[in-house]
Amino acid sequence: MEVIRTVEQLQQCILDAVDPLSKSKNIASSMINHMTNTFQDGGAQLCIQLMKEVFEKSDAQSINLQHQSQVDSLIFFALTTIQRGLNKETNNGECIVTYDCRLELRQLIYRYVFRVDTSTPSQRTIIMPIFLRKKIGIVFSQLIQIDFPQPWHSAFTELVHLCETGMTCSCVVDILRKDLFLLVLDGFCDEVVENTSLERNTLIKDYMRGMECSLASSVPVAKSISAEILHSILSIFHANVQVMYTPRSNAPGALEWQKLPILSLSVLKRFISWLDISLILTENNIALFFECLNRAGPGDVDDGHGDGSLASQCGLEAVHCLKEIVSKGMEQKKKIELIMKVNFLQQITDSNIDFDRVDGTHINIVIKIAELVTNIGLELLHFYDTKSKQTEHTSDATALTPHMEILMNLFFKCFSYDDIDVSGAAIPLACQILTSFQKERQKHVQDDAFNLFPYIPQLQSVMYQQMKYPIDFEFDYEDENEAEEEVYRSELRKINQTITRISPQMSLDFLCNTFSKFHTHLSLIQTKEIEAALRLVYHYCEGIRPPPGNKTALKNHQFRDVLIALHKSDITSHPHREILILYYDIAVRYSDLLQDMPELLPSVLSAISGNKGLQHEHPRVRSRSCYLLLKLVKALGPTLRPTVETAIAGIQGLLSNQVLSLHPDDSLYLFETIGLLLGQTDLGSKQQHQYLLAVIYPHIRMIEALLMSSDLSSNIEHYGPQLAFSVAAIAFITKGFTKRRSMEVQDILGETMAPCLKILRAAPENNDVRNKIMIYLQRMIQCLGDKVLVYMEEFLNTLIARSTQEDILDVAQVVHQVCLKFREIAIPTVEPIILPLLEKVSAFIIEITGGVENEMALYQDTEILHFKKIMYVSLLQVVKSNCTPILLSSENVGSLEVVLRTVGEGALLISDPLIKKTCLQVFHELSEQWLVNDNAASDAGIVSGFRSYLLDILMPGIFRVFLRDDFNLKDASHVRVLKETTHILYAFKSKDDLNIEQYMTTIFTGYEQINGEFVDMNLSDTQGAFERVMTSFLQKIKLK
Q: 267, 332 in Cβ contact below 8 A?
């Protein structure tokens, strides 16, 4: 790669890099990056030389470039490269850009940008583009950060002097100087003020504030650098504010001139938060802010950017400044005194802000005013809470009253504003009002004192009005704008919940009053009106105590009457889909009422299962109806007995309807609903058999038809999801027969095993099929009992052989369930598949490690532990379920030693205490079963080898683990490991007559002085006593 060595090369590279049509664009960018990474100063000196030449040629009008934009690109690119260098340091903490280089850059900017020391400062007629001015501001602020106050102690004095020259802006240079002064301060806030990670930045701020620090002694605030800067910012504002309100001329820099007051306030707001409040908090300044606010324009001005007129932009920055003042950290009492002295709320009330007409004032300003009112309100309410605790009426409380009254007036203006950003900004204040109201109710409030109770009904009313969706709201849950509307209303519902929790009766009275205003059929009520009213009903229980609120709420006869009236109304005839869904949600949430009053049930079921629900034209209604019908059936159970036949016929009709398609998940909800209707509604065995036959047999025939497809094997990607769905449907139907099932039901369900096995044979590598088959098997284990074992071995063999790293755990869990459910009966089924399962898991471990487990990545270690845990847990389930003879069968006994040593390695080498405990549990279970003299199932040679391994290898090894520093006897998980170890030793003591004293003495040679514990262990006649002595012994050893 060619290396940049000259200014000419650098210039050409920059021009190529910024030219989107240049064929050398990528090469040029690479060369520039190479320069910044290899040059000692990051290429800064070369960039400064380039800038100097470009500036000189530009001034002499002899630059050999095609367009002024190329000049700007060269300067911008050079400054960006210098900016990177200014951010880098050498090993000794010095900036890689030398001081001489920084000084030259500063002088260059002064001469050619600020036009200092030039004979023709006023001849400039072109103003730099904003992106370049901002870049100069950032780089110049970096120079201040590095060199101020030493060696550049006059940095801010120089800038202030430059900006105050020609305050009336008689030429472009005057405008540019002030603009750049403000942009430098803005960049300074980015680089220094808000970057608190550097100690030097804090020192610079302290120095500027006149505070005593390591850089200088203290000076009066009024004489500090910060005071000088603020004076200059405000001077720029005052000198140019009238220009902002006058028509713009066509002169160069006219727009930038008019924006100087806006930029002044934008910078000022960033200084308010960290400078002494006395510098800002003057009558003139506050009057200035509110004057800008009063002159703000309407929001319907077409400015092309949505920012409003210049007057509106200036008003917005003024509100920002007021917000910073109110948000400034100080003691609560001083903050309240400030709010009262300035009389913020009254001045906002007296301003020209139009709260009544949207866009009467620009929306950005109204939003910030709402935030300002909220901030002030939170401060006042916190103070109100402290004062209301006092038993005596104080002068502070008296002074607070008028401000609280104005606050509430402004709060309601903001909260009721027809824009969610404005109203949403007032929600934190609404929440605090309710919190303060709750505290107010708990104590006596004097008659002449301010209290919140009279305002709560209005808060409820505004909240309810704001809950109503706009007329054009489409309930499109994928639309971002509508998502914002939904988030806003979720916050309103939390307010409603809070009101209900504080005063349930007040909330209920409001709810009842709302419905009483509907003087016509509910189906004719406007969507936004009835939706908001139904929301009150649906969410009412969320604030009711004690939980569950839906049951407690139904004990209130007034609320029950509302629900009864709703069920008897024509609400299901409402044309809007969301109203139907919300009504069904209410029916399900308060389903206990339907249990108590079954006469209300037919109309609900008819609606939800007909063309107003399951068969509705809109897919969302159909989807929600599937889910809600399932919940309703679960809740009502036997109450639905009279409707079973009709309901099942309707559901089957929908499932077979080719026009009204359902999502597969929704269809599964319906299959589960059918199962619940058949299995949990107290149907007789004969009726269960009849209905289940009618549901299952068509399904089996459909499976057989799919399996007979001529292109099944070649097009399994197409048929796989259909076959998987068929299996899942049967599994979901069986959920209704978990508790009770007749022999006839078992026979029908049993007939599904063969077709499902055929599906697995046809598509054993299809992920969906395997997943659904495992779900199906778990359901069949519960429903069929040991009849499932006839097919289980082939199912498991196929699943294990085709399993993946992702689903082997699910396969293992089916094996575990078989062992736990059927215990000894499962031995013939599990015996042939246990070794293939363990071998498959081992193969996955080898896939991860490549056969070498050294220096694995962290994620690989996690995956390996995951698979080893599957092995250990599988073995534990086998031995705990009395299926241990599986390990001793002729097919498996040859691998027994390898299996046990693998489990032993897990106990000794894996640090995870949960895995250690699992491995030790395996040995404990085997000890209990094999260390019995008359156990005919255990081979003497095997028991002898097992005994030797445990006593000679495993136990000494595990005690070495206990003595390590990382084994903590105060850690519950480690204590469980110790407990399992004592179980094993106690089994040897009680079943194998092991002399614990002699054995422990052999292991712990050198600890004879505390071997009295060994005697106690030998004498322990209970497991608990043995465990306590062992724990005491280990504690003493670890202390030693």
A: no
DSSP characters over 288-327: HHHHHHHT---TT---SSSS--HHHHHHHHHHHHHHHHHH
Name every residue whose Cβ is closer than 8 Å to that of residue 265 and which is 6 or more positions away in sequence. 237, 292, 314, 317, 318, 320, 321
CB 670 within 8 A of CB 651: yes
Element (H, E) at 461: helix 456-467
Structure tokens at 910: 């894996």
| Alpha-carbon dihedral sign for residues 562, 563, 569, 570 | positive
pLDDT of amino acid 936 = 45
Identity of the residue numbered 408: M
Q: What is the DSSP letter of 89?
A: B
User: CA nearest 745: which of 730, 728, 725, 724?
Assistant: 730
Report whether 42 contacts 85 (CB < 8 A). Answer: yes
The token pair at 326 is 């109110």
Q: Which two tokens stand for residue 408?
A: 């509430």
- In angstroms, the CA 847 to CA 839 distance is 12
Q: Could you tell me the pTM of the whole model? A: 0.84
Q: At what angle do helices 644-655 and 601-609 cross, to 10 degrees?
A: 10
Query: Which DSSP state fits 885?
Result: G
> Using one digit for the tens of pLDDT, what is the confidence trace for 463-508?
999 999 998 898 887 788 888 999 999 999 999 999 999 999 999 9
What span, in angstroms and rounded, lies between the C-alpha atoms of 657 and 350?
66
Residue type, 171: C
Residues 6+ apart with CB under 8 A from 526: none
Tell me the C-alpha to C-alpha distance, in Å, between residue 777 and each of 706, 732, 948: 21, 11, 40
The pair of structure tokens assigned to 1034 is: 């280990």
Phi then psi dihedrals of residue 461, to 5 deg: -65, -45
What interhelical angle do 896-909 and 955-962 show, nearest 10?
A: 10
Q: Residue 202 region, left (φ>0) first, then alpha (ψ -120 to 50), else beta?
A: alpha
Q: How far, in Å, CA of 537 to CA of 540, rounded? A: 5
- Exposure of 760 by Cβ count < 10 A (0-12 exposed, 13-18 middle, 19+ buried)? buried
pLDDT in tens, 279-291: 998 899 999 999 9
Smallest CA-to-CA distance from 698 within 656, 654, 760, 731 is with 656
- Which residues 6+ apart lie within 8 Å of 264 measured at CB? 182, 233, 234, 236, 237
Residue for token pair 């802000």? 353
* Cα gap 594→772, rounded to integer Å: 35
Please name which of 372, 284, 259 lies closest in space to residue 323, comparing C-alpha atoms.
372
- What is the SS3 assignment for 506-560? HHHHHHHHHHHCCCCCHHHCCHHHHHHHHHHHHHHHHHCCCCCHHHHHCCCHHHH
